[in-house]
Specification:
This protein is α+β, with helices and mostly antiparallel strands. It has helices at about 35-45, 55-65, and strands at about 10-15, 15-20, 30. Helices cover about 30% and strands about 20% of the residues. The protein has a 3-stranded antiparallel sheet with strand order 1-2-3, with helices on one face. It starts with 9 loop residues before the first strand and ends in an 8-residue tail after the last helix. The relative contact order is 0.20.
């Protein structure tokens, strides 16, 4: 797990994948990249940066907070 991650849905990572909270209790989403540089850019922008604009975080927020489609 990265202590740099700000996103509450972030779980852990591997050299070419990020694992986030899943859509259902006890599940996990895996975002896989073939290119580690692209993964690093995604992490910097979304996991370690302004996570509220991450497409995965937005989807998970909407699925976990009934009636809320935007992250406050």
């Amino acid at each position: 797990m990265s202590s740099a991650a700000l996103c509450p849905f972030y779980r852990y990572e591997e050299p070419i994948a990020i694992y986030c909270e899943g859509l259902e209790s006890g599940s996990t989403l895996k975002l896989y990249y073939r290119n580690g540089k692209k993964l690093d850019r995604f992490k910097e922008k979304n996991c370690y940066g302004d996570w509220k604009h991450c497409p995965i975080a937005r989807m998970l927020w909407a699925s976990n907070v009934p009636g809320e489609t935007e992250i406050p």
